[in-house]
Amino acid sequence: MKEYKAIYKCRKCGKSFGEAITGDERLARKTLICACLETPSGEPMSPTLYFPHSCDNGDLGVADFIGWEKEVKEEFEPYENGFLF
Ligand SMILES: [Zn+2]
Q: How far apart are the CA of 13 and the centre of ligand 1, in A?
């Protein structure tokens, strides 16, 4: 199973962090293009180009949307050889 996490990087402290997750690659691509064009995508989890960040030292920074990060997760398999364990 693939998931995409919207990644931002703070201009002030340099920390990267994830904000939104979707399993829909088409939606990730669409919202990425809309963010680049600064056009509303109409999707509820659509990332914006900028996001506020509370830095670890108390500073307040502006973070840039730098892209969707793909994560591949293994499917949960409760049974093996027909037995629940
Ligand atoms: Zn920061």
A: 4
